[in-house]
Design goal:
341 residues; alpha+beta; Nucleotidyltransferase, domain 5; 6-stranded mixed sheet; two-stranded antiparallel ribbon; 36% helix; 20% strand
Amino acid sequence: MQHIESNLSSKQPRNLPPPTYAARANQRKALLIGGGYLCAVILVVGLGSNFLYNWARQRIVQSSPLNALQEINVADNPVFATQDEPVVAVAQADQSAAPEESNRTSVTSQHAINVLLLGTDARPEDTEAARTDTIILLTLDPQSKTGGMLSLPRDLWIPIPNQNVTTKINMAYVIGENRHYPGGGAQLAMDTVSSFIGHPIDYYVRVNFHGFTQIIDLIGGIDIMVPHTIHDDHYPTADYGTEVFHVDAGLQHMDGDTALKYVRTRNTDDDYSRARRQQLVIQAIADKVLRADMIPSLLPKIPTLFYTMRSSIDTNIPMATQIEMAQYLRTATPQNMRTLV
């Protein structure tokens, strides 16, 4: 069985005098803030439209484990219009602009919180907005202490609210950026998913894949139980070429680059398997970051984590809510976090 080692430096921190009480308090506060931001990230795909709409109704709406995704009334939702009706979604008036911060849902509220996780693959030479090839809806229910992740296939054809266009869901972000939609591409992506599921999206977290790999490296890599061997002879490289990617079945320790290849490869299976791998990696990151024994090793990396996140991550989640999410997730159990693809 192949064991993929992290390429992190083994350099140990210098011996320093014991921190004072105030210093320890500041360290704990910094860790909470950094951990909250990181949790917001980790909490960081055409087929015929008729088939995908039927799939969406059965898998996303009727079978969803997420408490916030109740069954949608087809007659009231333009996304699920019949074939005899024009497939053009009309967003509500208040969806044309980003909601006021005071109206955002808090983790301590009585309602479930929906967070849209968007992964982009922007390259340094790109001059246009990148498509969101990873789209995951995270729901947290403070009352029942449950939550879940729902992966949306990037090739799902869907009406884009207020844009008079039906296209792949991963184009919503690009359209919002190019057409200067109020709130930008992230807001249009939120409005598109909200119109699709019939429930509001409270927040978004957008992360560039390059930042994704850096974060995993900074936390020392992650452990993934790979269900079956993956061999891809044509994995796409950054210079538009290809390379061989191989990982054996079983428990594997992955650095950031390997984890990114693991979630992105499409050569050996379908988008549903790809979505499952994305969720496995997100859960592995969360499991490691929220472990109590990780606190000493994370503290000296907080400045680097902040720098990486500021340059690679965009979110509208207030800092106070990020801290609430971190504390909430520390008490969550795997049995209370369900996934669906």
